[in-house]
């Protein structure tokens, strides 16, 4: 818990700010500091709940912004900043570096950061590169928060539930938005053009990404739930998510979901009793047939159009991203053109005008995270990024085997769920650009948590982990 005297100092500053705001034209903002005092006091006493709130808000991207007066700030940024302040203060007070923050991930993160800095020194896209370096520091902060606040119970039970419920809320609102034409949760409702569900996210592809990421945890829930009612609830959530996935009309989402389901099946087939296996398979088949029956015909038409570039311009557009990206890479093979520079490079290409969209900027993402890293930081940067990912996957694998060999099959299963979710996300990043996605950063950090818990299990200290209160 954060020191009381420190809280007094922060409170005094916020009260002074309130008084100051009352004497300005921005007096309406004077209500902010008192609210901040109350919220910061809660966070100081219960920082774990702040951490869970940040995770819960990940699929709620459209609703993380504050009112217009302070729209440049986002709720999860403020919470994360305060959590970092608490971590720094507690570290200073204890006068030693927290053991839980030690990680085998830091080596590759540091290498990637150094390469990004070197690339930024030689780029002509200076502003973009500096912004990306700042985002990289923010990403490191989020990894620290995950490492610091994840207890045994959080890893095993709470985080999967928070992920599942937040995604299912988005899926439910996606369905309501699409079928009842609610523009808050579906795009292009008013225009009458190609309507797609977005739920609480800002883009149909992000909506499909989070649904795919959450699916392994649902199947863990189905297999290890103590009560039949909980299994039924998890199955309902799965159907809900599948409907939401279909009405995003994300072709990549369906492909990655199919791969994720196949991996889930391979990892869990031996754990299901023959009787339950038949019932589960029957329930899933009924659910899938129901989904097929209610799938809009426009969805099948969109899948068919992928084979016809003349009908679907997105195929040509994505091919242009690859062409521009590889052309830039050949000119800057080692350190790239600067972190995050792909959008600027593409905007200068002839393809930007050819595939321009009304009301949208010429600066477009590559829809491929690995291509963006390659263009931005070159072969060296992509190599460091891939080794970081490899380290995370290996952490999960080692931890899973330790718990499996010690007979804790439920813990082994939840670690496998994290790993499959991570793999599905990594596959999705071939179709989506976001090296700073919080599920990616969280997955990396929790791979170290899994490894730490496995080491404690081997040393006989499993469960004796300090829980941050």
Task: Summarize it.
By secondary structure, this protein is mostly helical. It has 18 helices and two strands. The longest helix has 37 residues.
Topology at a glance:
Elements: H1 4-22, H2 32-45, H3 47-56, H4 75-94, H5 106-121, H6 126-149, H7 152-179, E1 186-187, E2 196-197, H8 204-224, H9 228-246, H10 251-268, H11 274-294, H12 297-305, H13 313-331, H14 342-347, H15 350-354, H16 369-405, H17 409-428, H18 438-459
Antiparallel strand pairs: 1-2
Helix pairs in contact: 1-2, 2-3, 3-4, 3-7, 4-6, 5-6, 5-16, 6-18, 7-8, 7-9, 8-9, 8-10, 8-17, 9-11, 10-17, 13-16, 16-17, 16-18, 17-18
Structure explained in plain terms:
With 469 residues, this protein is mainly alpha-helical. The protein has two domains: 4-100, no CATH class; 109-270 and 297-308 and 367-459, no CATH class. It has 18 helices and two strands. It has helices spanning 4-22, 32-45, 47-56, 75-94, 106-121, 126-149, 152-179, 204-224, 228-246, 251-268, 274-294, 297-305, 313-331, 342-347, 350-354, 369-405, 409-428, 438-459, and strands at 186-187, 196-197. The protein has a two-stranded antiparallel ribbon with strand order 1-2. A hairpin with an 8-residue loop joins strand 1 (186-187) and strand 2. Helix 3 (47-56) runs parallel beside helix 7. Mean pLDDT is 86; it is low at 465-469.
